Amino acid sequence: MSGNTFGTLFCVTNFGESHGPAIGCVIDGCPPGMELSEADIQPELDRRRPGTSAYVTQRNEPDRVQILSGVYQGQTTGTPICLLIQNTDQRSKDYGDIVQTFRPGHADYTYWHKYGLRDPRGGGRSSARLTAPTVAAGAVAKKWLQEKCGTTFRGCMTAIGELEIAFESWAHVAHNPFFAPLADVSALESYMADLRKRGDSCGARLRVTAHNMPVGLGQPIYDKLDADIAYALMGLNAVKGVEIGAGFASVADVGSRHGDSLTPGGFVGNKAGGVLGGISTGQDLEVSIAIKPTSSILVPRDSIDTQGQPTEVITKGRHDPCVGIRATPIAEALLALVVMDHALRHRAQCGDVLVQPGPVAASPS
After folding, report:
1. What domains sit in the chain, N to C, each tagged with a CATH number?
2. How far apart are CA 21 and CA 85, in angstroms?
3. Are 169 and 121 in contact (CB under 8 A)?
4. At what angle do helices 38-48 and 131-149 cross, to 10 degrees?
5. Rounded to whole angstroms, how far apart are CA atoms 323 and 203?
């Protein structure tokens, strides 16, 4: 199976299965000389970790990361960094009933036809469990970008199912299990409690941003920054749509007001989402993603078995009623990996200096 490595200069190879002994990644291309320890990575993994609230899967994984290589006396050496996360709370017996059937909405059918076999335990390689190494790699990228460029990343939930989430403050995001920018999330709690009672699931919309971006990251034509952002985020489990800046709202706009005008003080808006011609403007990167409802639900659904015969599927086990709840730190990590890779590519072509912009328009709250 190919397709497990992301990046050109900052390359991340992801390995493992949901119910295997461990998962992890190898980072190749991290510059030497950066102080790095497990303590720099663990907080990001803790944000994504399962079993942290009543609204996510109750699989209880500590997700403790180990650095196996690439760091000597607390500093990166420039050699491959191997990050390992043990699986400790697998419950494979939950998947015994689906060995010969295909779960609607899952990759079971496509994996089986592509490879001739599949690992049914928690989805095997197709499981969202494999996003943990992505978050770990993203933590390394975030640290380097903050130290070298001052670039920071943050994300929040902007809708869950049919509920739109009004933006109040970034300060609220860290204080509720939904990563919602709200002080009062009781309506979200009630909505999720009802879904759980019915054995059903819902989707979500997330917003993720990169602040204090250098100017000039990205290549014209095939390696545009926004194209790589869309490529990375579409690789996140359950994502079915990516918007940069104004996104699909651009359709109903007109050119006389859509283009971000320039003044001596900078851009007057950021409908472009921080990218023009595939190259960063120095404004915040603004990205939104749409996440489909969780496919593993207790509601019976029609399907077929490996012999092509009709059957009914009920997915047992421990699952997120909304996979979007824990997706914010993953989306941040993927955005950081894209920016990190492009920062190194820019440095290789244009020299060591990453250009910081002059005054730019602040993105809306």
Report:
1. 5-350 (3.60.150.10)
2. 9
3. no
4. 130
5. 7
User: What's the rounded Cα separation, in Å, for the pair 172 and 16?
Assistant: 34
Q: Find out whether 89 and 47 touch, Cβ atoms under 8 Å.
A: no
H-state helical runs in the chain: 38-48, 108-115, 131-149, 186-198, 225-234, 255-258, 328-350
CB neighbour list of residue 94: distance below 8 Å, 6 or more residues apart: 316, 317, 318
Give the global pTM: 0.91
Nearest to 144 by CA among 352, 353, 339, 350: 339
Residues 6+ apart with CB under 8 A from 72: none
Q: Which of 122, 99, 128, 93 is nearest to 112 (CA)?
A: 99
- pLDDT confidence of residue 318: 60
Q: Note the pLDDT tens digit of each residue in 198-226.
A: 888 999 999 999 999 999 999 999 999 99
Residue type, 93: K
What whole-number distance in Å separates Cα of residue 304 and Cα of residue 185?
40
337 forms beta bridges with none
Task: Name the residue type at position 237.
Answer: N
Distance CA 220, CA 242 (A): 20
Backbone angles phi, psi at 130, to 5 degrees: -75, 0
Strand partners, 312: 302
Measured from the Cβ of residue 28, the count of other Cβ atoms closer than 10 Å reads 18
